[in-house]
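I have been asked to look over a protein record a colleague put together. Alongside the sequence sits a line of tokens, each denoting a local backbone shape. I have pasted the whole thing underneath without changing anything:
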Amino acid sequence: MSAPDGPLDPRGVRFAAIVTTVVLALVLLSGSGWLALAQTLVFALGAFAGMRFTPYGVLYRLVVAPRLGPPAEREPAAPVRFSQLVGFVFAAVGTVGYLAGLPVLGIVAIAFALAAAFLNAAFGYCLGCEMYGLLARARA
């Protein structure tokens, strides 16, 4: 991964989770491997380049954030980037499934990614961030 992002506005992270939830639901409804590929690329940008480079992050910064006050708190970027990596893996598997004519693989992998995105969008619970914390404690 490249240089880490600075602390993140948790509202931006949640906004990205909401958009991701919508996109992944559309993938499941349409069965579109190309839309799954687009979301996979968004996850890749977040995981490997940083959240500030994702289209959802840019949209939040340019359109949504100026209409809000400053965030009350910020959260570290590393757990969020790890969650983007996990999303990337599931979305990549789902994309391969859809584009290779294995729709069950696509559906299952995208459904897992959708469940994680929905937990963050609806409840502010970042499953990948929790996994990051567990792995960090296991390493220590």
In short: Residues 10-139 form one domain. The chain has a mean pLDDT of 95.
